[in-house]
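Run Site-specific integrase through structure prediction, thanks.
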Amino acid sequence: MSLYKRKDSPYWWVKLTVSGHRVSESTGTASKRQAQEYHDKRRAELWEQQRLGVKPRRSWDEAVLRYLDEEVKKKSVNDDKLHLRWWQPRLEGMDLTQITRDVVDRYKQESQRSGLSDATTNRRLQVLRAILRRAALEWEWLDRVPRFRLLKEPQGRVRYLTREEAGRLLAELPEHLRAMARFSLATGLRQGNVKGLRWAKVDLDRQSAWVEATEAKGKKAIPVPLNAEAMRVIEEQLGKDPEWVFTFRGRPIEFKTSTKAWRKALKRAGIENFRWHDLRHTWASWHAQGGTPMHVLQKLGGWQTPAMVQRYAHLGMDDLKRYAEQVRMQESPPGYVLATPEKTKGRRSDPKSLKYLAPEVGLEPTTP
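Sure, done. The structure for Site-specific integrase is below.
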């Protein structure tokens, strides 16, 4: 019998040899009857492939290996590998044509029930979809890609520090992390761009740095003007390494910055729910609070679209107030005088009176 069970899988597996071509793969079912049907169908398909030149079927394992080989230089390839380790025991040995919408929905529900966030489940689905799309559109291994929906995610979180909190955190960080955190707060650069900054990308005379398009998340070069604080950090790093701006024990920083030292520093500083990437949120929030226009902030941060910067727009409300005054009425209608800050400040009138409503439109009723 060419059907067999494996200890590490609940499904029946099939082993076939047709015209010297050997196949060992999962049937995707725990039913022996259905597994036998799969066996017979696969034997017929293999015969057609060998004798009639029909397109061969490809397995999930083949697709994963080819995808990782093509994406070896992708910045987030390690994240992809993390999600693929979750998929592997579930899809191992399956033919790509067996990965239907029903199969995907079943594992999507399993991921949700595990208690992880919807965002994590979506990242798993996205890497699966990327592989299936490439198998269909580029490799021509599939005739069609199953369509499935991602889960709805809440809007991106904006967590930022006050200047006093930032000072407490910097005081608790070890020297190498403190230098990078200070530079992140001064420039808004992402963690990878700070760790990978080379002296060749820094111009001390022009007080600027730049991130190449190949190193930027948005695939566009980012000019980085260096303010006084950023320049102080840069000057403190001079002479430590001939190539890399930031180092640890004489070597470039390859580890993630969210280390045990980072977590302990947060605890000592009394700061909760804060990630390294939130330093970038803090930088952008401080800019918005200081009145930096959103289109300027977009260029400074290297965001691709204005929509990605609008999450900080509400923080710049104080700067907008002076523009709001430009449309204040210059003359009052009969029975009213223009309201002034002195007349409306601190007033708490009866909600049913006109005096309560008047400040809403910048007017105040006069005494009859």
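The two ends are 103 Å apart (CA to CA).
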